[in-house]
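User: Mediator of RNA polymerase II transcription subunit 18. Structure?
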Amino acid sequence: MSSQGNAYEVALFGEFFARDLKAILNRITLHSEYSESMHTREVTFEPIDAQHQRDIGNEPVVLRAKKELTRKDEGWILYSYLKPESVRAHPEATVRPWATCHVVGDALSFAQALGHTRRSQIYKRGYLFRRRTLVIQMFQQEQVDPNTQEPIPAHPDTLWEVEVKTANPIRNTQETPLSQSIDAVLEVQLLMKGLLDLRRQDV
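Assistant: Predicted structure:
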């Protein structure tokens, strides 16, 4: 049983070939309340001493700075994940402690001031769906032009990725047990059966 102190994200992941886009898009749209296009910039940071932490058997806390580019004046969100709970505790879905905060101003400098160094940067372009307490992201990753730091449009054949997850951090309480969120993502897994294989992954 997970402790009540942490807030958690519950998630399932999948991927598919571009040729299946229309069928998958139609089915997810049919079972969602709301959809919009998404174009997100995501910058990953890890502690300056991350390698040392790994060497002594600790998992460093990775920070991600995320900004939605389709909406003007949208601020940065900084969020971090801890190691997913074991497959024995939650075999059906990825359950991991997470924390998030909105940052006013330059989140990248803020993360560096916290003693973190930039590790990678990607852009994700695709669609975002809302289904009750869940958010479903369906996207292709775009690489970054090393000279301009701008995204390079994905090749049409680039694999599509899907993340089905709780929209907000969940506390494991009597009112909002984790099992409710796990059931919600498993419902989507069932809806997509035969078209898209959604599964747990340790990330």
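DSSP finds four helices and ten strands in the chain. The first strand starts at residue 7 and ends at 16.
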